[in-house]
Specification:
This protein is an alpha+beta fold and 201 residues long. The protein has a single domain, classed as 3-Layer(aba) Sandwich (Trna Endonuclease, Chain: A, domain 1). The chain is built from 7 helices and 12 strands. The longest helix is centred in the first third of the chain and has 16 residues. It is globular, with a radius of gyration of 19 Å. It starts with a strand and ends with a helix.
Length: 201
């Protein structure tokens, strides 16, 4: 069992076969990409560990231990953080099974607050949202999605909004979610850098 900060319990096994199973493919793809970035000295980005206090452990075998009860110490913030070209990166990754919209209930208030705090420090904050029905993965600047969430008065964000305001993330077998391409596009101007290297400003 997992005990949440509000005192409620959730079954560890059932949580991982239902809600916990959602997002695992996207997470695996991002982890593969991050490892590719690290191996190629592109960026250093890691998944944040979830702080859990173990309460009860069973030993069905001498060589194996099974956690049967635990609780989260604190609500988690976002999934990933790291550094790229001297800038701090922080982002959340979500999968969406709907063909029409992304439900805001997928984002917790403390995650929104965390992303806002990151933006106040002039760091790079964004969300990666995969619409599984279309096999499309979008990069969305955190300020854009937070602004829509705060001003729309709705419980979800239309798929069409992502197509208009998000950035479709390219990928390959070895680098399936190449979000750094979008970061370069938004935060690093290649033309300006070429001019600077040639002595122009």
């Amino acid at each position: 069992m997992i005990n949440y900060p509000n005192g409620k319990k959730k079954n560890w096994a059932s949580n991982h076969t239902s809600a916990g199973g959602r997002g695992m493919k996207l997470e695996s793809d991002i982890n593969t990409t991050n490892q590719w970035y690290l191996s190629n000295d592109t960026a250093v980005v890691h998944k944040k560990p979830t702080p859990i206090t173990i309460v009860k452990v069973d030993y069905p075998k001498r060589s194996a231990a099974k956690i049967t009860e635990a609780y989260f110490k604190l609500p988690s913030t976002t999934d990933y953080n790291g550094a790229y070209r001297g800038r701090y990166l922080d982002f959340e990754a979500k999968e969406c099974a709907s063909k029409t919209s992304f439900p805001f209930k997928s984002l917790h208030p403390h995650q929104i607050q965390h992303l806002e705090a990151v933006l106040k420090q002039h760091a790079i904050a964004f969300l990666i949202v995969r619409f599984t029905q279309f096999e499309e993965t979008y990069y969305v600047p955190a300020d854009k999605l937070i602004g829509y969430w705060q001003n729309s008065g709705t419980s979800s964000c239309p798929y069409a909004w992502f197509k208009e305001n998000g950035y479709l993330i390219p990928g390959s077998y070895v680098n399936p979610v190449d979000y750094i391409q979008i970061v370069d596009q938004l935060y690093f101007d290649p033309q300006k850098e070429r001019n600077s290297s040639n002595g122009y400003k």
